[in-house]
Amino acid sequence: MSKSEVFSIELDAETLFRDPDSEGPEAVGTIRIGEFTEAFRASLAYWSADDYRRSWRLAYHRLESADDAISCLITSITDPATSNFVFCWPLYREGEQVFVQNSVIFLDELTEAFDPEAPWASVGPRETITEDGDEISEWHTSMDALRAFFRRPAVR
Which range is the signal sequence, renumbered to this chain (predicted)? Predict the structure, then answer.
């Protein structure tokens, strides 16, 4: 497997941040796609660290279900009944390639209620250019990289 095909997403629930502006503690997470790495903070006010990890496994299984599938990895969620947005990384599978973008789901813009058990239902089709003609940041990896990561005994 080449460096460009590396993938991981992890959450450190031992190191918590307490931001006075947030609804509760936040865990530190990291996503790695090839040589790209980004840290994120995951709110623990609505979901536990295990809830995030379970959701990521469901997102992976969603991708495995078809050669042309849309899924997403939720990286921060608060109660959808009272929040405005959810942070996520949409995953677009095309054959054995997976395109990954960083996104925010604005809950008040959805035509149907957000379902935390199927967050990919709130992710639109893959776009690579914004309405203003700007390129959307996107990374790519492979299904083999996701398989290697998610087939490990425990996603941390």
Answer: none
